[in-house]
Design a protein that fits this description.
The protein has 311 residues and is of the alpha/beta class. The protein has 11 helices and 10 strands. The strands form 2 sheets. Strands 3-2-4-1-5 form a 5-stranded parallel β-sheet, sandwiched between helices. It is elongated, with a radius of gyration of 28 Å.
C-alpha cells in the first residue's frame, strides 16, 4: 500500500569539488537502503572523499540500463525502502538518468523527494554575465551537423538566455555553426570544468569564441551559455515591406529575407514566415484591346498564378 511505501530520493552531487556536498547528501548516502548510481566507482570515490560508509545495496543506474532497473527500484520503494538516486555530477534527470524513474513513481502514487544542490546549468548561468531572469535549458547540442544547425536556427529569435551542454570534441564545430546561424556578434560564454581546480569561463562574442576554441585543445566538461536575441528596433511589418520591395525589384524571396534580416534583430526564419503570410498586392486587370468575347490571355497577357509569373 502507498501508506507504507518508502521514498524515491533524488540528490544532487558535487560537480567536481567534494566540499560542495550537502550535509543531507552525506546523511542519505549513509542511510539509504538502496543507492542507484550512474557510475558505481565514482559513487564510492565520492563517499570516500566525504568520509561516509554506504551501507545500502548499490545498483548501477545509467542511460542504457535505466529502463531495465526500473522494476526493482519501484518494488524497493513499495516495500518501504529509501532509494537514493545520484549521478556523476549535478542533479539527476537533468540530462542524466532519473526522469523515467520519477515518472514511474508519480504514476504509481509513490513518494518522491529531492535533495537540492550543485547544478552545472545554474552555475554556468550566473557566471556567464548574461541575463538570468529568464532562461531556457537545451540539454546537449545535437551531434549531427544538420540537426545541430537546424537547432541553432530555432534559437535565432529566442529572447531568453539559453544554456546547453557540449562535448569538448565538438565545441569548435558547434560554435562555428552558431556563428553561421546566429551571427558572430551574439554574446556567449563557454564554461569549462566548473568548481574544479582548472575552472575556466571564456566570455565574448561567438566570433571571438570560435577563434579561441580553434586555437585551444579544449578538455573537460563544457557548458555553453548563449545570450537571447535582442529585440528588433524595427516593427516586423516594416521588415516584411522591405522584403516585398526587394522581391518586386526582381530579387529572390530567400535572398531578400537574408539581406533584410541581417542586423535587424529578427531571425531569417521568422521574417521568411511572415513574408510568406503577407498577401501579395492584387494585380491590376489588363486592359481589353480585343473585341468582346476574346480572352485577354490569348494575346500574351498573364493572370496572377500563371506558371510564368515571377514574384
Amino acid at each position: 500500500m502507498v501508506s507504507s511505501a518508502g521514498l524515491l530520493l533524488l540528490a544532487a552531487t558535487p560537480l567536481g569539488n567534494p566540499g560542495d556536498a550537502s550535509a543531507r547528501l552525506v546523511e542519505a548516502l549513509g542511510s539509504a537502503e538502496v543507492v542507484a548510481a550512474e557510475d558505481t566507482r565514482r559513487l564510492r570515490a565520492l563517499a570516500a572523499s566525504l568520509g561516509v560508509s554506504i551501507i545500502g545495496r548499490v545498483i548501477s543506474h545509467y542511460d542504457a540500463v535505466e529502463t531495465a532497473r526500473m522494476g526493482q527500484l519501484l518494488e524497493a520503494v513499495r516495500e518501504g525502502q529509501t532509494v537514493l538516486v545520484v549521478t556523476d555530477a549535478g542533479m539527476p534527470s537533468v540530462s542524466d538518468p532519473g526522469y523515467r524513474l520519477v515518472n514511474a513513481c508519480v504514476t504509481a502514487g509513490l513518494p518522491v523527494s529531492c535533495l537540492p544542490g550543485p547544478s552545472a546549468v545554474t552555475t554556468a548561468l550566473v557566471l556567464s554575465g548574461l541575463p538570468c531572469d529568464r532562461f531556457c535549458f537545451e540539454g546537449f547540442a545535437p551531434r549531427k551537423p544538420g540537426e545541430r544547425r537546424r537547432w541553432l536556427a530555432s534559437l535565432a529569435g529566442e529572447p531568453r538566455t539559453a544554456v546547453f551542454f557540449e562535448s569538448p570534441r565538438r565545441l569548435s564545430a558547434t560554435l562555428a555553426d552558431a556563428v553561421a546561424q546566429l551571427g558572430g556578434e551574439r554574446t556567449a560564454a563557454v564554461c569549462r570544468e566548473l568548481t574544479k581546480t582548472h575552472e575556466q569561463v571564456i566570455r565574448g562574442s561567438l566570433g571571438m569564441l570560435v577563434e579561441w576554441a580553434a586555437a585551444e585543445e579544449v578538455r573537460g566538461e563544457i557548458t555553453v551559455v548563449l545570450a537571447g536575441a535582442a529585440a528588433s528596433p524595427f516593427p516586423l511589418d516594416e521588415l516584411v515591406a522591405r522584403v516585398r520591395s526587394r522581391v518586386d525589384g526582381g530579387e529572390r524571396l530567400k535572398d531578400a529575407v537574408r539581406a533584410v534580416a541581417t542586423g535587424s534583430g529578427v531571425s531569417k526564419r521568422e521574417l521568411y514566415a511572415a513574408s510568406l503570410a503577407e498577401p501579395l498586392e492584387p494585380l491590376e486587370p489588363p486592359e481589353l484591346t480585343e473585341p468582346p468575347g476574346e480572352s485577354p490571355t490569348a494575346s500574351g497577357a498573364f493572370c496572377a498564378g500563371d506558371p510564368g509569373e515571377t514574384r
